[in-house]
């Protein structure tokens, strides 16, 4: 098992890797696919096929990102971008005892999170258009445990959007000695190096996750009732896939064969 996990970790980062996906190898829309059992995860009871589907990419990516930050219950985590990755990240982080701030300019993203059970909702929702970093010190401080006497700001931030302003917004809310993790972002980010130097920040990246982490992700989501905002499309000779790829619909598109 240790050998297998080690090999898997190497293969994940192979620059020549080819994946079975929408824009990868043929076969992704077959009704049945033959795969090695060592590369699969059983869907736990209580988790539908439709809800399990986004976990194989968005779910395990944000789960592994949160793990990589090595936060403790009560720490404050900022998630910028509340789409497929970010909305799952809010719920997973809350289920693990973190205090969570969600930031997104789209009201529909806020609306979905507010439909969730209170225990899975973010502790604070921000719209960067209106909620300026310099005005949020007291609100962030109110999320801290009694007796907290360290720096103002959040302990870590995860970027889940390609918005050019997301990184700078997150940096403005991070405290000194914090962590910034990128699961997405603009290809040519624009920020000041001085922010990283004078705040002594650690910058990390995350690429999906391991088979073990996918298993843990699915089990956690089944146990805690964590859900994606999904819409289901029929195959319809591929025409519905084009609608999903167009980006006009909100939420995660699931194709049902």
TrEMBL record:
One of its GO terms (molecular function) is metal ion binding. Residues 84-222 form the Alcohol dehydrogenase-like C-terminal domain. The keyword Nucleotidyltransferase does not apply. It holds the Pfam family ADH_zinc_N. Its cofactor is Zn(2+). One of its GO terms (cellular component) is cytoplasm. Keywords: Metal-binding, Oxidoreductase, Zinc. This is Alcohol dehydrogenase-like C-terminal domain-containing protein. The lineage of its organism: Eukaryota, Fungi, Dikarya, Basidiomycota, Agaricomycotina.
